[in-house]
């Protein structure tokens, strides 16, 4: 398998995972089919589109290959059907949302950093673009569904992407690119899922209350 084919497979898989998370969020917000499709599209391609615009990689990635559109449509339809068989009120849908979102975050963040480096940008820029790629789609999804984005409510989300993309930029200096990509993705997914399951949060910024 060529390196380019591996990147495309990972990119399509990341698109599918975030499309699923968009549909799950739509279901939690009791949206209709069109609302679910909109959230799936925005979540799946929002971050990558913003990255491509910022680094000048235009036309943006999903406009150059119809496989991304087909992947979103199929993922949306299958997820809507599957939701009929997932019981409500037991936390299963919320757990599934956290899981697929963590996978999408890890894959897209590293793919975003890798593409930025391939465009000739420095490592710090690659880290920033990787984080944007990973979190922007989810932020758009949450805003459209009138929810406070994960990244703004004290959860270990953007910080997981930052740690993972920084790790990726260092690992690739000593190991093959494929190893660095897989390791970076694994680090992000692991940090995010561990924080979710253990209830680890980032301290919130609050004003000091004056004593009366």
TrEMBL record:
GO cellular component: plasma membrane
Ribosomal protein in keyword set: no
Start and end residues of each Glycine transporter domain: 9-82, 100-171
Pfam families reported in the protein's UniProt record: Gly_transporter
Membrane topology of the entry: Multi-pass membrane protein
Keywords annotated in UniProt: Cell membrane, Membrane, Transmembrane, Transmembrane helix
Membrane-spanning residues: 6-26, 33-54, 66-83, 95-113, 125-144, 156-175, 181-202
Source domain of life: Bacteria
Record's subcellular location: Cell membrane
Principal place of residence: membrane
Family recorded in the similarity comment: Belongs to the UPF0126 family.
Record PANTHER family: INNER MEMBRANE PROTEIN (PTHR30506), UPF0126 INNER MEMBRANE PROTEIN YADS-RELATED (PTHR30506:SF3)
Protein name: Glycine transporter domain-containing protein
């Amino acid at each position: 398998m060529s390196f380019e084919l591996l990147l495309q497979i990972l990119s399509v898989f990341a698109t599918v995972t975030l499309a699923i998370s968009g549909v799950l969020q739509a279901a939690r917000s009791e949206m209709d089919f069109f609302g679910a499709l909109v959230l799936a599209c925005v979540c799946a391609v929002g971050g990558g589109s913003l990255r491509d615009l910022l680094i000048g990689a235009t036309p943006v990635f999903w406009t150059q290959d119809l496989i991304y559109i087909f992947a979103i449509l199929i993922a949306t339809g299958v997820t809507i059907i599957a939701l009929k068989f997932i019981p409500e009120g037991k936390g299963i849908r919320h757990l599934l949302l956290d899981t697929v979102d963590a996978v999408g975050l890890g894959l897209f963040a590293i793919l975003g950093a890798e593409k930025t480096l391939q465009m000739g940008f420095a490592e710090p820029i690659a880290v920033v673009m990787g984080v944007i790629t990973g979190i922007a789609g989810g932020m758009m999804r949450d805003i459209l569904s009138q929810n406070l984005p994960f990244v703004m409510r004290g959860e270990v989300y953007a910080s997981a992407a930052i740690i993972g993309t920084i790790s990726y930029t260092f690992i690739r200096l000593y190991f093959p690119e494929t190893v660095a990509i897989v390791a970076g993705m694994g680090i992000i997914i692991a940090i995010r899922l561990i924080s979710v399951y253990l209830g680890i949060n980032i301290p919130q910024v609050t004003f000091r209350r004056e004593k009366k």
